[in-house]
Amino acid sequence: MPARTSPLKHVAFIGGYAPRRCGIATFTTDLHEAVSAAAPESDCFVVAVTDHLQNYEYGSAVRFELDEKDAPAYRRTADFLNLNGVEVLSLQHEFGIFGGPSGSYLLALLREVQLPVVTTLHTILSTPDIAQRKVMDEIVRRSDRLVVMAERGKAILTETYSVCPERIDVIPHGIPDVKFSTTSPFKQQLGIEDRLMILTFGLLGHGKGIEHAIRALPAIVAKHPEVVYVVLGATHPHLLAHEGERYRLSLERLAEDCGVKEHVIFHNRFVSQVELMEFISAADVYLSPYPNEAQITSGTLAQAFGAGTAVVSTAYWHAQELLADDRGILVAARDPDAISEGINRLLGDPDHMLTMRKRAYELGRTMIWPEVARLYLESFSKARASRPYLPRAAFSKWTIASRYELPSMRLDHLYRMTDRTGMLQHALYSIPNHEHGYCTDDNARALILSCIIDEHRGSSLHRSIEELMDVYLGFLASALDETSGRFRNFMTYDRRWHDEEGSEDCHGRALWALGTLAGRSRIDSYRLLSGDLFKAALDAAERLKSPRAWATALLGINQYLQTFQTHRRAHEIRLSLVERLMQLWVENSDPSWPWFETSLSYDNARICQALIECGRLMPHAAASQAGITSLKWLSSLAFVSPGHFRPVGSDGFYPKGGIMAAFDQQPLEAQAMVAACLTAWVATADPMWQREARRAFEWFLGRNDLGLPLYDPRTGGCCDGLHPDRVNSNQGAESTLAFLHSLLEMQQAGLEWAKPAILPPVTMLERPALKPASELQSAC
To answer: Is 380 exposed, middle or buried (CB count within 10 Å of its CB: 0-12, 13-18, 19+)?
Structure first.
């Protein structure tokens, strides 16, 4: 059937949207309004990507909200778009505005929308890390057209990502259309008519280079005492939530230390577009001191440049293109002397400055929003024309037959099992069992979970996760014996320690938790305390003899070193533990038994996970190979002919040359397999590991030997195991944490969910009926 040539009737835009305060939100708002004005016959509406830290009062243009941290919401958004007859989707992409590692949640939406997609890339990385490359490759594959705002962006797409140039549209960043004018009337409005004004504007945050500009001021003021430097803009909401006004205050102190306090004005406000243009029109020089060369787009630069303001900028990619041919002055990044020399040269030559302004203004007429909207409509039409018109159902056939979403993250049982001391070990059904008290093992697991939830939390989690982190970190602090550097494990309900020294597994898991918190927490006090505890317990890891304790300690060291990369002792112990695991591999593995010991026992896949992760990060090719090989073998044992996950049972385990125990199956095994498979997927990009992770996770939901779910959606808890004839109905800490960890990792991975072509023929609709509650027996 031929492609359509009629005008577009329905266009959807996805991105942040006003009144959200960020560059992407401003851009999406301006683009939507410009396209709506250029194509009044089209129905243009917005899906607003919502910051989970805020609630916004959107206008009528927003018809659907997408919570950036809510993984299932991305598929619901795709359903909404498919149902509403959208002809083209305009997607604004920036890694940081979508949930999941490197914004991977977005991929679930792109896999399921059944309409042409035009993606505007606000960041294009020439050297992405593994996770960023995976996300970018799929965005490229699932977009009909890609929009970049500079020729350098097009070059990176073709050279780094092998994109066909014909699929790329270079469309400049849009700007308002303003008249070319002198600065005098606008300076009078601001009350600085007798001053020379240097302006930097935009949301304030680290990485803008303003500290270098302030350090350049003394040399500028020495030649031009009438200079005032205006830093216009509120602190970025995310930075404000995490550290308040610390960064702004540090800049104010720096101005005082440099002796230019009276020459710097911090205008701490998010101004309207009208106000912003008044500030730009009053500026003699717009200063853009970004320290990172790989800045492919700058909306602030585009606005100031297009208004005909003289520009001095560090030589990042976007500035290099706009300011070529004497349309501005480029200076070295992070170099106050270069900044002061460039500005002094410009202020000392008014005639040259005027010529430069006119050149910039002339090019800026090609960047005004009506012209940009016309170019976007051309791109939208090309995208639609690239697909033949076929009436599209809202859901594909496989979706109707078998799609189901991941369960929502419910923390009810986690809170129920946690008191002011810590997380209790056991439960009687879903009721906390005080008799057995607490253990460091479970509180360490709970600390890891709460840290990652806090990092990726969604608006559906209303209770403060910080309350839990306070409790779990406090428990670990009390568990550490600073003399021996080892953790105690078991505490009675009346807060008495059972043991002077806990198990080696307990020590490894505590290091894992503390390394995670030190390396990833957004809260300074947590990072400082967990870092102190981690360093106090690190040396003891070298004295451990358990391979599983080595594995969990390695996972913690990896997390710690992601932030504290120069910690020599952590590097030494990581290498030592990896070499010990590799020695066990050499001593015990053979083609028929590719394993590290002469038996398979518990938490087996955790060893594979640690070696795969270390192999990628160190790097250590032999460790990676051993981890992948052993995990493939575990997978071959666990995914047997029924097509579902069957872990090694704890009632006998699996000795070499013996028979593998089928029961009792533990949630810990499913959790370890999910984590190891997802780690293997990140390391290898082999989709097989996605499939294995899904099948292991489905064990919790009822795709297991009994066809019975262990996860209880009413309580948010998980049952303690699978026996030959029943589920152990007690919902203890270890099992509940195993499920929640696995669910969170599946959500973060953003995997395509439950296609029959990938999964075995047993579907959730075919699952055996649940036994009535009266037939379920307790196994306390």
So the answer is: buried
DSSP 468: H
Q: How far is the C-alpha of 617 from the C-alpha of 626, rounded, in Å? A: 15
At 755 the pLDDT is 35
Q: How far apart are CA 221 and CA 340, in angstroms?
A: 9
Residue 542 — φ and ψ, nearest 5°? -75, -15
The residue behind tokens 């959200």 is 20
* Helices assigned H by DSSP within 96-235: 106-112, 130-142, 151-160, 184-190, 210-223
In the sheet with 424-428, reading across from the earlier edge strand, the strands are 424-428, 431-439, 490-491
pLDDT > 90? residue 243: no
Which residues are paired to 230 by β-bridges?
A: 199, 265
Write the pLDDT tens digit of every residue in 575-632: 999 999 999 999 999 999 999 999 999 999 999 999 999 999 999 999 999 999 999 9
- Alpha carbon distance 647, 637 (integer Å): 8
- How distant, in Å, are the alpha carbons of 79, 179, 324, 555 from that of 75? 6, 45, 44, 31
Strands 486-487 and 480-481: antiparallel
31, 174 in Cβ contact below 8 A? Answer: yes
- Alpha-carbon dihedral of residues 204, 208, 212, 213, nearest 10 degrees? -60
Of 495, 433, 450, 469, give the one whose Cα is nearest residue 732: 433
What angle separates helix 350-364 from helix 336-347, to the nearest 10 degrees? 100
Residue whose token pair is 């630069």? 301
The one-letter amino acid code at 587 reads E
Phi, psi of 728 (to 5 degrees): -75, 110
The token pair at 780 is 């306390």
Best CA proximity match to 747, nearest among 670, 668, 674: 674
> What residues does 145 pair with on adjacent strands?
118
pLDDT tens for residues 98-147?
Answer: 988 889 899 999 999 999 999 999 999 999 988 899 899 999 999 999 99
β-strands 62-67, 43-50 pairing: parallel
**Start-end of H helices in 84-209:** 106-112, 130-142, 151-160, 184-190
Q: For residues 667 and 63, give the distance between their C-alpha atoms in angstroms, rounded to a whole number.
A: 41
Alpha helices in 618-710 (DSSP H): 621-638, 667-684, 688-701
Total H helices, total E strands in the chain: 28, 24
Q: Which residue has the tokens 């939830």?
A: 453
Please enumerate in sequence order all residues whose Cβ is within 8 A of that of 415, keeping only pairs 6 or more positions apart, or say none: 463, 468
- Tell me which residue has tokens 């262990």: 710
Give the helix ranges, DSSP H, for 258-334. 273-282, 299-306, 317-322
